[in-house]
């Protein structure tokens, strides 16, 4: 991949010369990220002019931000919806179906009980169960974004995933607290 100044304002996918899609080749993204970084990393410009060093730092920051967005499934889904000019309404649309909210309460109660009882094994079990659930939900989002686009349903599923990803962090924090 050639370093091109006009790409600075390109969308994240174009920056890495990738087709905009939820399903992407993670290894290819990694290779293109490393290729770009090898061209623009500030260490390569240590003896350059102040303007060139500043330009390199701006590029490195831009490439890192794009890479982090595309690397993570939830942020990639949000970004695709953003590119489609479809607001997920994460702050304004907090209404969730009752069954989803009940499920969230049950998950959180199970985490709290396992943490209070010091049951590391149960927290690991919850972690693995939630990871499997997340994979299934990400596959659903892939279909809604890549196969037969339904941006409204995709946005709804992304809002739900925001809850689940936060829950995964809570489980990981509970396990870490028990390890201390």
From TrEMBL:
Residues 11-83 form the J domain. GO terms for molecular function: ATPase activator activity; protein-folding chaperone binding. The keyword Chaperone applies. It comes from the Bacteria. Keywords: Chaperone. One of its GO terms (cellular component) is iron-sulfur cluster transfer complex. One of its GO terms (biological process) is protein complex oligomerization. Gene3D superfamilies: DnaJ domain (1.10.287.110), HscB, C-terminal domain (1.20.1280.20). CDD domains: DnaJ (cd06257). HAMAP family: HscB (MF_00682). Belongs to the HscB family. Co-chaperone involved in the maturation of iron-sulfur cluster-containing proteins. Seems to help targeting proteins to be folded toward HscA. Interacts with HscA and stimulates its ATPase activity. This is Co-chaperone protein HscB homolog. It comes from Candidatus Accumulibacter proximus.
